[in-house]
Amino acid sequence: MDVKALQRQLRDFAAARDWQPYHTPKNLAMALMVEAAELLELFQWLTPEESRRLTIDAADRERVADEIADVLLYLLQLADHTGVDVEQAVLAKLAKNARKHPAVGGGEYK
């Protein structure tokens, strides 16, 4: 995934529709939270097992994928509008998390 290319594509998409005046950091953060809530709504009140099964059915998985994409698109736009380099921020945060939560078992994710 080329983050910078996606951000350019999102800028072009917004510009073609004259949406730039509405894409302020505040508005993008609010839209991000709305989309995150829509993702959460798909899993609300499900048991852990039901939530795992939600991704087995193709139609349900597509709904989950759509909401995940919406969250990511708004997050990328917010980062773009605030000057945050997403790749750099993620790597820095992973390093902070590794220092804060050192590995104890050394096991791999299964």
TrEMBL record:
Keywords: Hydrolase
Gene3D superfamilies: MazG-like (1.10.287.1080)
Transport listed as a keyword: no
Keyword check for Hydrolase: yes
Superkingdom field: Bacteria
Annotated InterPro entries: dCTP_Pyrophosphatase, DCTPP
GO biological process terms held by the UniProt record: nucleoside triphosphate catabolic process
Signal peptide annotation: none
GO molecular function: nucleoside triphosphate diphosphatase activity
Protein's recorded name: Nucleotide pyrophosphohydrolase
Organism name: Alicycliphilus denitrificans
